[in-house]
Amino acid sequence: MIDFYYWPTPNGWKISIMLEECGLDYRMVPVDINAGDQFEPAFLAISPNHRMPAIVDHAPPADYGDAPVPIFESGAIIRYLAEKAQCLYPAEARLRKEIDEWLFWQVGNLGPMGGQMSHFVNYAPGEHPYSYKRYTGEYHRCLGVLERRLADRRYLVGEQYTIADIINWPWVLISKAMGQPLDEFPRVAAWRQRIKERPAVQRGVDLGKDMRGGQPKSEAARQRLFGQTANTAGTGE
Ligand SMILES: N[C@@H](CCC(=O)N[C@@H](CS)C(=O)NCC(=O)O)C(=O)O
Question: Probe ligand 1: pick from 6, 17, 52, max atoms within 8 Å of CB?
């Protein structure tokens, strides 16, 4: 059984979709990031960067030994699950190299740029023209990278749907809500729709739907989320 530490956001969906696609047994453990669950010592022991998603696998593959395996960072989690279930991560060397490229590209580019853009589009009070332009531009640039990549492929590494698609997709799913409706990126729009139609993807995105909250509801929650430093660890103190 896998404990899946989760809150319904794009980074969480990467892993809920993967668990559903591979038919793995899991138990969802909510990490309410508005309430500060990401700073609980028990959670930090699993995820030292105080971010979800994270997992603990209580029945790991034999080469990990018997002790439960904790994993943080969506890229590391998705590769671990793919190898455990031998699912959506083909072993062929050149293909695997390409999958890894698009996986690391997501966690180093589309994810952080989309995350900062979301902050300035959805959460930052007041006008921040430079930051807004910088991050909306970077997110737009990333969509252009995907558009070119999909020029002659149905999925990011060819005709096969893989973990490279799963890890990128949630941050494209939300493009319209962030003010970039994909009109300029028809191949990305078609790829998004193709993946959205998969039943496992729908189940993954629906996980914990009733916990979705929109804006942080209190000033304390805003401080916890947006006032983090090494000293306060986001407690708002
Ligand atoms: N690089 C991390 C990013 C995870 C991340 O940023 N998670 C957000 C939710 S989408 C979070 O836990 N935020 C809590 C906070 O900001 O305090 C990954 O890919 O797993």
Answer: 52
